[in-house]
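Example record

Each entry pairs one chain with its bound ligand, heme C.
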Amino acid sequence: MKLALVSTLAFLTGAVSPAFAEAADSGVGARLVHDTCATCHAVGADPDAKSPDPKAPRFLDVAKMPSATELSIKVFLRSSHKHMPNFILTPEEIDGVAAYILGLGKK
Ligand code: HEC
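Structure tokens for the complex follow.
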């Protein structure tokens, strides 16, 4: 109930879309990130962790970049990259991953 209220408030204020809030709650992002992204990126909130691929930024650092927003992360995940594999993710997965990464910056 409390959760529904928070989602509704966020929706009314335009901060977060309902689908985004749902994906953030469902753990889809956390699962995907640990299964798929952790081969190269440090994906946790540990400030001492190092990415397995030194060229891949830690998600904690991505979360703290001033340019990191829900939109910028979603755009990144839908575009093609030179140095990172191009993943084909469903919209739910993209929401989940973006929510997961941004959530790290709030800890
Ligand atoms: C094979 C290694 C590899 C895997 C697997 C990988 N990445 Fe990356 N990623 C990189 C490298 C290298 C960079 C830095 C170079 C670049 O930006 O292209 C990067 C950069 C990023 C950035 C930073 C973009 C920015 O604005 O600077 C994000 C966000 C990101 N990856 C998300 C993900 C997510 C989400 C996954 C899992 C679905 C993932 N990566 C899996 C190697 C990887």
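Confidence is low (pLDDT under 50) at residues 9-14.
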